[in-house]
Design brief:
Distance between the termini: 125 Å
InterPro entries: Biofilm_reg_signaling (IPR052155), EAL_dom (IPR001633), EAL_sf (IPR035919), GGDEF_dom (IPR000160), Nucleotide_cyclase (IPR029787), PAS-assoc_C (IPR000700), PAS-like_dom_sf (IPR035965), PAS_4 (IPR013656)
Radius of gyration: 47 Å
CATH architecture of the largest domain: Alpha-Beta Barrel
Protein name: Diguanylate cyclase (GGDEF) domain-containing protein
CATH superfamily of the largest domain: EAL domain
Largest sheet: 8 strands, mixed, barrel
GO molecular function: catalytic activity
Helix content: 40-55%
Number of domains: 4
Strand content: 15-25%
Organism: Acidiphilium rubrum
Structural class: alpha/beta
């Protein structure tokens, strides 16, 4: 506080000199001393504040150093620093840990270190190019960067790092390097890659999914004006029966095995996909028809081989439709549509085969679509009618029943048989209404016929699954006033095998109602003794394919005889369909078949003709009465019986 003695001394000097009477001088001196006083106070305060700030700054710096040390030692991220040349200057323990090297070994150019000294990353992943180029450009331009994710090569393993940094300068403002934070985001990046992969692939089979397959097809079809490709649409045969019999768990195992076999049947450049359910597709980048059909043959062969899971042996098949680009379509939509048409034809051909698209298939599709539109009006405008084919008992040569067969009298196309519109009705959801119409017509006719006469009505597999089926049947029968046993329902062998859930329940309920149940077209599917014993059948109908060559095919005769013996052992009546010759009738009589049905006696006829037949009393046929069974005919039938061989245990009807 030197200003105080200085001020006192100044006043003393003025007093001694005798200038106290000079007021201006005294005021000036007083002002000066006051200014000096306040200046000293101000400077003293500033010096004090500076000292406090320096102390606080030192404490803060120490705190920051402690926090940084703790961050480097314990955090998952790490600090990094380079000099002006981009060379690593500071290596934290965490940096060394994630780099899988000692701190002393981490040196040199930062980007070169991340890529690997021998540029391994670029050699292993050349398609990615120089992944560090964006970061290199920013560092050359001395610009900050944030969360730049890039692959690195650490110990021969590909990892993913996220880097954040900013340029640093010295006190003179000169650039001296970069300082920043890094983090290993490999787990997060792999999770994102997995999510992206699952978005493009089927999670069950690991094949491409519909989205990825459509992208590949679209890309291939966009290459030039004349894209070269082959599209194979696959659909598994009898797969639904596997799910129904063994459950979806085993069904999923089958799908995985099928996918594995498909991958083994195609080449690396081909694309296989699961589109959903039991539908698959294969894309070939070639329009070579021979190549496409050869791959289709290979796929069918491999997929159709038996599968074994925990002692369960499963056998399925696959049908394939093939469309070639550009011949069969130049857009993905057209190619898909035509491959689907070819697949439908392959299914129709008996399954387990392939079909190439043919333009005639498109015309048939248009015809089917026309029928699909017209069938709705057919019900409203009474275009449907029912014909009845007599069933004749071989023992009495008399009519014992009828089978109802629906027909469609189209205003433009004439009479359309059921084989051409029943499936369309099923897909249109009209099969229930058509069956109800046929049942009502049959019940009404049964009410006008003798009490022993039963009329058979065919049940669609789809209709057979409906929960309201039995109630509908009961209502129609009651309205007609006929006994339920006068109605016999025919279900196909395939329908019984493929739809066991609701089907078996409805069959038992129909049987409890009093109706009879017959299994139709027996021998064309995969029935077994277990199948026949599981359902409440009253009758078995042998398919006409076994009767057609009964006279000439030595293999058919013992099969037919075995079917008859099997059925009668189980208490079932047997009807042979498609009997057209007296020779066939004679052989069936010898085999003790109960009933026959076919053109030998009568084709299907209208209701009026049936009533006229019964009114005239002509219900006993001339079969076996008017015709003479020659000795040679009986001997030939007897010889056929003698050469019968025991049926193998794995035959289709055991």
């Amino acid at each position: 506080m030197f200003w105080l003695p200085l001020t006192v001394g100044s006043f003393c000097a003025i007093y001694v000199s005798g200038h106290l009477d000079n007021l201006a001088f005294v005021v000036s001196l007083s002002g000066y001393t006051s200014l000096v006083f306040f200046t000293m106070v101000f400077l003293n305060r500033k010096m004090l504040e500076r000292s406090v700030n320096e102390i606080n700054l030192a404490q803060t710096g120490e705190t920051i150093r402690i926090l940084l040390r703790d961050f480097e030692e314990n955090a998952s991220d790490w600090l990094w620093e380079t000099n002006a040349m981009g060379e690593i200057k500071h290596v934290s323990p965490r940096f060394a840990e994630v780099a899988r090297q000692p701190q002393s070994a981490i040196q040199g150019d930062l980007l070169a270190f991340m890529a690997g000294a021998d540029h391994t990353l670029r050699r292993v992943y050349p398609a990615e190019g120089d992944v560090f180029e964006p970061l290199r450009r920013r560092m050359i331009a001395r610009k900050p960067f944030r969360d730049m994710v890039m692959p690195v090569n650490m110990g021969g393993e590909r990892r993913w790092w996220s880097m954040t940094g900013k340029p640093i300068e010295d006190s003179a403002g000169r650039f001296i390097g970069y300082r920043g934070v890094g983090s290993d985001v490999t787990a997060m990046h792999r999770s994102r890659e997995r999510i992206a992969y699952l978005a493009r692939h089927d999670s069950l089979t690991d094949l491409a999914n519909r989205t990825e397959f459509n992208n590949a097809l679209g890309l291939l079809m966009s290459e030039g004006a004349e894209p070269n490709a082959a599209l194979l649409c696959l659909d598994l045969d009898q797969f639904k029966a596997v799910n129904d019999s063994y459950g979806h768990g085993l069904g999923d195992s089958v799908l995985r095995a099928v996918a594995h076999r498909i991958r083994g049947a195609i080449r690396d450049r081909d694309v296989a996909a699961r589109l959903g359910g039991d539908e698959f597709s294969i894309l070939l980048p070639s329009d070579d028809e021979f190549e496409a059909t050869a791959i289709a043959d290979r796929v069918i062969d491999r997929v159709s081989r038996p599968y074994k899971f925990d002692g369960v042996i499963v056998e399925i098949g696959v049908s394939i439709g093939i469309a070639m680009a550009p011949r069969d379509g130049k857009t993905p939509e057209t190619l898909y549509r035509n491959a689907d048409l070819a697949l439908y034809r392959a299914k129709d051909a008996g399954r387990g085969t392939w079909r190439l698209f043919d333009p005639a298939m498109d015309r048939q599709l248009q015809d089917r679509r026309g029928l699909q539109r017209d069938i709705k009006s057919a019900l409203r405008e009474d275009q449907l009618f029912v014909e009845f084919q007599p069933v004749v008992a071989l023992s009495t040569r008399s009519i014992v029943g009828l089978e109802a067969l629906v027909r469609w009298e189209h205003p433009d196309r004439g009479i359309i048989p059921p084989g051409e519109f029943i499936e369309i009705a099923e897909r249109s959801g009209l099969i229930g209404a058509i069956t109800a119409f046929v049942l009502a017509e049959s019940a009404a006719l049964a009410a006008q016929l003798p009490g022993f006469m039963a009329i058979a009505v065919n049940l669609s597999p789809l209709h057979l699954r409906e929960a309201w089926l039995v109630d509908q049947v009961s209502e129609i029968i009651q309205q007609a006033g006929v006994a339920p046993e006068r109605i016999e329902f025919e279900v196909t062998e395939t329908a019984v095998l493929e739809t066991e859930g609701r089907t078996i329940d409805n069959l038992h309920r129909l049987r409890a109602l009093g109706c009879r149940i017959a299994i139709d077209d027996f021998g064309t599917g995969y029935s077994s003794l277990a199948t026949l014993s599981r359902f409440p059948f009253d009758r078995l109908k042998i398919d006409r394919s076994f009767i057609n060559d009964l006279e000439h095919n030595a293999a058919d005769a013992p099969i037919v005889k075995a079917m008859i013996d099997l059925s009668q052992t189980m208490g079932l009546r047997v009807t042979a369909e498609g009997v057209e010759t007296e020779r066939q009738a004679a052989i069936l009589t010898l085999y003790q078949c109960n009933d026959i049905q076919g053109f030998l006696y009568s084709p299907p006829v209208r209701k009026a003709q049936v009533l006229q037949l019964f009114e005239s009393g002509r219900t006993v046929t001339g079969l076996g009465v008017g015709c003479v069974e020659t000795v040679s005919m009986v001997r030939q039938a007897t010889r056929a019986r003698r050469v019968e061989q025991p049926m193998p245990q794995h035959s289709s009807f055991e």
